[in-house]
Amino acid sequence: MALIPSGLARDPWFLLGLGLRGLLLAVLVPGIQETWFVPFLTETMGAPSLDPWSSFLAHGGDALSFPYGPVMLAAFLPLTLIGWLAGLPFGAEMALAGLGLRLTLLAFDVAGLLVLRRMFPERRALLTLAYWLSPLVFYVTYWHGQLDIVPVAIMMGAFHQIGKRRFRQAGLLLALACAAKFSMLLALPFFGIYLWQNKRLRSGLKPFAKAFGGVAALLGLLPLLSPGYRDMVLETPETAKLYWLALPQSEGLVIYLVPLAFSLMLYATWRLRRTNFSLLLSMTGVTFLTLVLMTPASPGWYLWAFPFLVVYQISADRAGYWLVGLFSVMAVPLLALTTVGSSLPLLGIATPVVPEILSLHARSVWLTMVIAVGCVLGIRMFRNGIQHNDYFRLSRKPLAIGIAGDSGAGKDTLAAALEGLFGRHSVQHILGDGYHKWARGAPMWRAVTHLNPRANDLPRLTENVLATLDGREAVGQIYDHHTGRFSPPITLSSNDVLVVSGLHTLLPPALLERLNVRIFLETDEELRLFWKMRRDVAKRGHDPAAVRAQMARRQPDSDAYIRPQMANADLVFQVAAVNPGHLAGLKDHPVPLKLRVLIRDSLYPERLAKALIAICGVQLDMDMLDEGRTAEMIIEGDVWAEDIGLAAANLVPNLDELLDVTPLWHSNVLGVMQLIVLMQIDENLRRRIAK
Ligand SMILES: Nc1ncnc2c1ncn2[C@@H]1O[C@H](COP(=O)(O)OP(=O)(O)OP(=O)(O)O)[C@@H](O)[C@H]1O
Ligand SMILES: O=C(CO)[C@H](O)[C@H](O)COP(=O)(O)O
């Protein structure tokens, strides 16, 4: 019991499943183990050889006895050998070797449960019911006696490791699973796509491939030198089942439907552009399930899909939960009507022949029903995987963030900070200044200011934003603040995240409607003047007096056109200097800031406030305004960028998958703003799922 966590060892459902298993493995002797697996293993122990497959065949063994590679041999030998040796003095070596084999199955069965529990720690109770008490495992492993639980448990170990970003271990375990049973190779391309598509994980591809390649070459390819291995493992009649379902074509040619379905599954996964861990599990699971549904699958094949069905079962809604249960309950009688079971030597009962209780027609109807339930399950798993794939939602439908505010309020600074979060390659930034109607010095600027919507081509800005959101390219231009001229036309492409920053971003209704996150920056006037002066004089070469005069001249338009946009925002950031009186003395030094935030119609403010206080150590006052619709937070205090990152990881559990680069967190107020925008995005994505 030392290997079993104490919580599990006290779980009555686990103990029930364990007791049942113990009973079954003590009293049942599955026919296929007695005919095939045990003779092969005992022959190997009796006449050890470096090439047990050829040696077994040379001694007249049945080629169907052990269609498995060296990993399976290594897995089963220890306990089988102990049983065999213990039984020798009493002439019970075959019986006890068989018991050793079944104890090995139990060990891997427990390992499968433990891996799943580690992968889904928050669903442990449900897992014990869904996995440990499933009739499918009882039937396939303990009554029919298949060995597939071994490669399946190892493969799940590989999934667990990749989820933990342990690439080498994942490659090693997957290679072991494949060397145990070649069919596990079907999972390999999904691992490859997952690692390739996620830029953040791409560096893991090399260690994964190296570990996989090394172990697979040693344990999967080297044995191919043995003619016996080739006969027993490669030419097993099981492989032919993959080509069993075929559509006749002309001149005797056929289209093999299982390989076709497999290729389409790979293509579908590839087309999603980015796959998160949950989708990786769904797509691999649907592929294994498809194999079961489209072939005259051996009972062991059901086990390949089984852990994925369990993962779906514990994360789906009630209907999904019962559907997996129904599939298992329906599949078992179907298998029992077509495959052999166990003998009960202690009671003198021989292995029963396959019962012919139902007519062929009735069995076909049953099979059809099992396939129907399986198909519904496959579709639901596919849909569920896609719905929970943050990246899918981002890449299919870009996420649009709009930032508005007066000149010098900090719009482009925030936009750049958001680019640092998502990575430049994932962001298309559209700057409102590129839509001014005239270049600097044009006579029209004497009549209107830049803050007047009519001085900006807002319909074109809106069209360009909508085009990129719909996946089309648009032509834009940049306003160069050094020269006061426009750049030559530039291409604006669609991307995962679209950031639109400008004076009027929250003004045109058609644009407003398509923005997922609407931000208004209302920087304190004194601070804005300070920042604007510092930037316009130093970076844009303006005269200080002219900047001051321009701000005064623009004030009425600011009140008329800029500030009212605040009403359209989900997030309002009001930034001010902690000591406004000290601004002049700061020159180029950073300004200590405080932040007032208004968060409208969102569910996360309380969680956020707790994390900001507990993890980031800020001073925070929170209040609810507008009859509880708006959360107001006043935040002060220095914050390390690392702490913002820590709070983000805490607040957004799937952060790793949402951001495919290592995010560049800022310190202090800008970092807090990044975190709040991220929370807003997270909530927006969750709402998208719920729709
Ligand atoms: N959160 C912040 N923390 C520190 N400095 C900031 C912050 N926001 C803005 N600034 C300072 O203010 C200056 C103006 O900011 P920024 O260029 O982002 O404003 P803007 O709203 O995009 O202005 P405009 O509309 O005139 O282009 C920046 O050069 C930067 O020095
Ligand atoms: O309001 C502004 C930006 O939002 C600027 O004042 C406007 O773009 C004109 O820039 P410049 O003074 O460099 O010609």
Automatic annotation (TrEMBL):
Identify which top EC class this enzyme belongs to.
transferase
Which parts pass through the membrane? 12-32, 71-90, 96-116, 172-196, 208-226, 253-270, 323-344, 364-382
Q: Does the keyword field hold Acetylation? A: no
Q: What is its EC number?
A: 2.7.1.19
Q: Quick check: keyword Repeat in the entry?
A: no
Secretion signal span: none
InterPro entries xrefs: P-loop_NTPase, PRK, PRK/URK
Q: Look up the record and name the pathway of this protein.
A: Carbohydrate biosynthesis; Calvin cycle
* Reaction equation(s) it catalyzes: D-ribulose 5-phosphate + ATP = D-ribulose 1,5-bisphosphate + ADP + H(+)
Going by the UniProt record, its keywords in alphabetical order are: ATP-binding, Calvin cycle, Kinase, Membrane, Nucleotide-binding, Photosynthesis, Transferase, Transmembrane, Transmembrane helix
Q: Where is the Phosphoribulokinase/uridine kinase domain?
A: 401-578
In terms of Pfam families, this protein maps to:
PRK
Family statement: Belongs to the phosphoribulokinase family.
The name this protein carries in UniProt is phosphoribulokinase
- The organism of origin for this protein: Azospirillum formosense
